[in-house]
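$ run holo --ligand "zinc ion" --emit tokens
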Amino acid sequence: MSQKLTVECKVGDLRDELVVNGPLSEETESILAAIEFPKSLKSDVVLDLAGIKHVNSIGIRDWIPFVQRLEKAHRLVLRRCSPTFVMACNVVQAMRGKAHVESVCRGYECPNRHYFWVDVALGSSKKQTDEKVPCERCGLKAAPEYDADEYFRFLE
Ligand SMILES: [Zn+2]
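-- output --
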């Protein structure tokens, strides 16, 4: 069954939010190009990207013009970028456009193979590390899925 890509607009006080859910792939080709933004969309727009679970080259081809179209009239902030999205940004810098990245989801796995995400805020200049964190389910130390050097490279 094919999964649909949706972009939901949430109106905020100071900035509006676009919540993107679904894959960026041939399944969703041309959906992004057809999306019409509300006329009332504020100058500051947050893209919430935790719902992007799959990205391939066809999806990237659709995504870049979507970001460029938004950037013509809005200041973009990316929030909760999913690991798949982050790894695509590490390959194709244009995925991010000129957007400020507020936070990214980093994957961790514990010895019991529990996999979970931690939303990492990037506001401070604090250097990201490969420190282990307690597993949400069993409490054992969980290691990051990707090294910090590799994972956060697209921010440099
Ligand atoms: Zn665990």
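-- notes --
The mean pLDDT is 93.
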